[in-house]
């Protein structure tokens, strides 16, 4: 008896489903792609319990005859390929003929379809890959496919499904991707009999972007010029570098109408922003790329998410050219610029002389006056044009060392004299340590919060919003009160009082970006990690000022670990007189 056997058709379909159908969002992706290929002008998706109980995709496309409907349930039956040569020029979203039979093999499946010219439609019922009923049906032109009880006959796969809200968020994200890829189509989504969105057809791609992005961010969209080269054309939009984030979830790329992910494209986008992005950040972008089908292989990934370019450098060059041109400042009208008649600067220099009643001797630069020995509460020189930070929150009695403040180095480090030598002090690292211990509540008591006068509204990816809302209690423990505001909008009502950030929106955007996309090990919302991320983001917005150094050091040395920030970097560094003398050759080594 031979050891090698041909798999039964149902088992083969279930094996194929393991590659094609990962979760409910995979089912929606495959069925919506078929609807777009069928020329649908309106597509509706209904899901119950995150898609595990029901997925229904309805369209008004061309529909199928009874013969074609039955063939669509056969493995590798497709209307989109005839010869092997067709695969090199494929322009449709689906082409393998695996999706429908694979879905039918792992669900309780029903297909209802009718061609426009037909009087009656066809209804086919499939249970776990076995056709149980075929009959005539009265229905509108188009196709409706239902998949109920997904993975009911594959319990090992079903137990790997995530929470209903998480699966629903992935479905919504997938449908939004297709809405961007096919802006001329109306997309509707309902979840548990509640409408999630209804996106009308858009005349232009940018209109669909605005529908999904919201009014506020839409005002900042930067149009990229239509760019051609080597069989490639590209058009799209980006947001300014200030909206760059750690993850790539806000990059939407469509190749010949297909949503794709590709490192060549991501790197080219970042290169186009060169000089404007910090390390590890990626710009927000929406790109539509049309490419000769012979120049790309779309059949390299089971779910067709990734592609392989035959000439990736050409793709890079076109993206780089378009992004660079789009970000280039507009050339001013030279004729409208009045000639300058003086070389005197428009603004006064930063270091101004003292008032007339002071002695006639030249005034020293700002912050050069000697300071009292700490800890002292004497007032320090400051620039009245700069806003004053709140007094650092002192956690307990302080035992600060005997430092004498000398001045500031490049507005970044404080230079101080100690009994043993020279001390360089990093105020931002000190703020980070103070914030961290305050938020971590290491000294007991309840963390004080400050209710925002105007709650901050943040638009998030559906998947990110689901994660944040599930972790709302952990955020509340860190002093951040959040709740859903409808759609994909998150409302933030409170922040830790000790932070006192001047721009809550920018602070919260950066905070959520790091919490959601930083690939740090362990729980992203663990109390200690959240305290560390909060402290780092808050301290990054501090502008060091000499007048605050005494109270800052007093608060720092009330901390449990005053000599290092939350991430371990030092708050101050001392150079002893012995070391300085040795460096200048005044003593023997």
Descriptive report:
- This protein has 17 helices and 22 strands.
- The chain is of the alpha+beta class and 589 residues long.
- Among the domains are: 9-201, 2-Layer Sandwich (Heat Shock Protein 90), CATH 3.30.565; 220-327, Ribosomal Protein S5, domain 2 (2-Layer Sandwich); 449-496 and 503-540, Ribosomal Protein S8, Chain: A, domain 1 (2-Layer Sandwich).
- Strands 5-4-3-6-2-1-7-8 form an 8-stranded mixed beta sheet.
- β9 and β10 form a beta hairpin.
- The radius of gyration is 31 Å and the shape is elongated.
- The model is unreliable at 333-380 (pLDDT under 50).
Furnish the topology, listing elements before pairings:
Layout: H1 9-20, H2 24-37, E1 42-48, E2 54-59, H3 66-71, H4 99-105, E3 108-114, E4 121-127, E5 130-137, E6 142-148, H5 155-158, H6 164-181, E7 186-191, E8 194-199, H7 205-213, H8 215-218, E9 222-229, E10 232-238, E11 251-255, E12 258-260, H9 263-272, E13 285-291, E14 296-297, E15 308-309, H10 312-327, E16 404-409, E17 413-418, E18 421-425, H11 427-440, E19 449-459, H12 462-470, H13 472-477, E20 481-484, E21 489-496, H14 504-517, H15 527-540, H16 549-556, E22 572-576, H17 577-583
Parallel strand pairs: 1-7, 11-13
Antiparallel strand pairs: 1-2, 2-6, 3-4, 3-6, 4-5, 7-8, 9-10, 10-13, 11-12, 14-15, 16-17, 17-18, 18-22, 19-21, 20-21
Helix pairs in contact: 1-4, 2-6, 6-7, 6-12, 9-10, 11-15, 11-16, 14-15
Question: Could you give a short description of this structure?
Answer:
The chain is of the alpha+beta class and 589 residues long.
